[in-house]
Amino acid sequence: FLYLAISSYHENFSIINLWNDLIEKKEEAKAPRDLTSYSLREYMNLGITPSRFMLDRLFKEHSIDFISGPKGQGKTEFVLGVTNALARGLSFLTYSCPEPVPVVYIDGEMDPYDLVERSKIYIERFGYPKDDNYFRIVNYAQQFKETIPDIKSPEGQEKITRQLELTYKLTNKK
């Protein structure tokens, strides 16, 4: 999976803290009590495989990536370009996508029609993804009480995990 977050500068502090908390929790669960070291020979023989790029030289599988900048500078358009390329297995700018990758686009703030309007250009140019389940959208406005639970909360994490599991079930691909 690729975790990609977008934020305007005025929102950075809370979102950066959120991502740091998520990363720390994940690392705490995996971290041994003592540090482990290896000789160079041992390390070279651990069987570590190369990371797989989903978008060559830009986004690796299992990475956590953060897009940040001032409001109105193209963050959402950049991410829509990336996700549309991933879902279709197309190049994005100068970066190639070796194969289609399922996308779950979770939008907690954008007006629902903005996503319709911004998606039209990708559909007109490239068509829909070959498998409709390769680009799934969760928008806050279509949720109960027009809200998505805080993704830092167990409830929010569970709901997102269920969406990822649904996408895996529908595509048989992570």
Structural summary, described in words:
Helices cover 41% and strands 16% of the residues. The protein is α/β, with parallel strands linked by helices. A two-stranded parallel ribbon has the order 1-4. The chain has a two-stranded antiparallel sheet with strand order 2-3. The radius of gyration is 18 Å and the shape is globular.
Q: Judging from the principal axes of the Cα atoms, what is the shape?
A: globular
Number of strands: 6
Characterize the biggest β-sheet.
Answer: 2 strands, parallel
SSE string, helix = H, strand = E? Answer: EHHEEEHEHEH
Unreliable residue stretches: 7-16
Cα radius of gyration in angstroms? 18 Å
Task: Write the topology of this structure.
Layout: E1 3-8, H1 12-30, H2 40-44, E2 53-55, E3 59-60, E4 64-69, H3 75-88, E5 103-107, H4 112-126, E6 135-139, H5 154-171
Parallel strand pairs: 1-4, 5-6
Antiparallel strand pairs: 2-3
Helix pairs in contact: 3-4
